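Reminder to self: keep the SMILES exactly as supplied, no canonicalising. Ligand is zinc ion.
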Amino acid sequence: MSDDWFSRLKEYDSLSKARERLISSGKEQEGRLQTLRKRQDDTLAQLAELKSVYIAHQQSLFEIEQKVKVQTEQRGHWMDRGGSDEKLAAYNQEISSLEDKGFALLEDLDRNESERADLQTFLSGLEKTMSEISDEVKEEMARFQHEIGQLDLRLSSLTDALPSEYRDLLMKTLKKNLAHGPFTRIDSGSCFFCRYKISRTDESEIDMQKKLKTCSQCSRIFIPYGT
Ligand SMILES: [Zn+2]
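Structure tokens returned for the bound complex:
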């Protein structure tokens, strides 16, 4: 009879592993979207930064134009009064230098605009990809959820069918959240997972008499050889 219980434990083990694989596939799916969301945030931040530089440059350009206007007016008054050529040259110099600054700013504004247009194009493509992937991910997640639900039903019916001795030990061992699950087997006289040496008596009780036993070191449940 214990053969049957052990084969149920083994089935429990393989179903739980299938469940874990589904959960990690779900995380991968969500990871795909998260990577794209991060890229979207970065692009939006770059756009905002470029926009604020643009606004600051526009303001500087406006101020330069005001200065050019003032200087040009002053130069006109100076010429009307027949002022010296030296001072006139200084006005011209100042106006021309302000105009150069203005041109440089205009070039920056053009570059800024085209960089933002490129980013905007990239962003639109990214958003399109995200909405496609998001549908895919939703579908996959729904499928995983459904499969996990089926596995959970199967797992609980398996544990319900176990004799209390097996079920209690399984529940107790599951609570320990052991890596690679709650089961082990004897491998060359040792526990497969923790390599704890198993006595001949224990080995015979586990593998021949199919007794329910746990590893004294890692506390995993032994599944007898040939189950
Ligand atoms: Zn062990």
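Points to follow up:
The chain has two domains: 2-161, 163-227.
The chain has a mean pLDDT of 95.
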